[in-house]
Amino acid sequence: MVHTINIAAQLAEGKSPREAILISKDFITEAVRHSWKMNDYVGPVNHGAYHKYGMAEKTQK
Fold first, then answer.
1. pLDDT digits (tens, 9 = 90+) for 35-59
2. Residue 42 in contact with residue 26, Cβ under 8 Å?
3. 10 Å Cβ neighbour count for 57?
4. Three-state secondary-structure class, residue 44
5. How far is CA 48 from CA 16, 18, 23, 53, 54, in A?
6. Can you give the pLDDT at residue 60?
7. Dihedral sign from CA coordinates of 21, 27, 29, 32
8. pTM recorded for the entire structure
9. How far apart are CA 21 and CA 10, in angstroms?
10. Rounded mean pLDDT of 5-33?
């Protein structure tokens, strides 16, 4: 669901479908990468990680 909403938001901002999908993929990837574990099986993802880590990494490249 988050992926679909993120794509829709990117399209509403005027991004192309390809750009919207790639940004949304990066958003989800960073959210999972910077999540924390409650136990060996589950834990919440960090929805703010893309803005904190993902975008910064892209602007430095």
1. 888 888 888 888 788 878 776 555 4
2. no
3. 11
4. coil
5. 23, 22, 14, 8, 9
6. 47
7. negative
8. 0.69
9. 8
10. 91
**pLDDT higher than threshold 70 for residue 32:** yes
Residues 28, 20: Cα–Cα separation, whole Å: 12
What is the structure's pLDDT at 10? Answer: 93
Token output for 10: 């990117």
Give the whole-angstrom CA distance, residue 9 versus residue 2: 10
**Burial state string for 16-52 with b = 16 or more CB within 10 A and e = fewer than 16:** eeeebbebbebbbebbeebeeeeeeeeeeebeebbee
Q: Cβ–Cβ contacts within 10 Å for residue 58, how many?
A: 11
